[in-house]
């Protein structure tokens, strides 16, 4: 089974599927943008509006975290992940960490 074939859902139940719980799974990443993009973000902070460099950073971090969550689930022999959630935090002014976590399940 490919990682991308592992169903990831934020719901507790998957309709029309019975499954057993394997355990908790997670994917974690910490990302930072380069100095040039940080300077650009600093200027944008003065005038206001969306700071696209940071939106891109968080989008990239989210995608990596989900991919790692799927890999963790695959390594455990799971078919799906239920109750998936995200958590994020700033480590410093230019670094963000994103965690995707949930419960790995195996279809009966």
UniProtKB/TrEMBL annotation:
It holds the Pfam family YbjQ_1. InterPro entries: UPF0145_dom_sf, UPF0145_YbjQ-like. Gene3D superfamilies: Hypothetical protein apc22750. Chain B. Belongs to the UPF0145 family. HAMAP family: UPF0145. This is UPF0145 protein FHL05_11715. It comes from Companilactobacillus halodurans. The lineage of its organism: Bacteria, Bacillati, Bacillota, Bacilli, Lactobacillales.
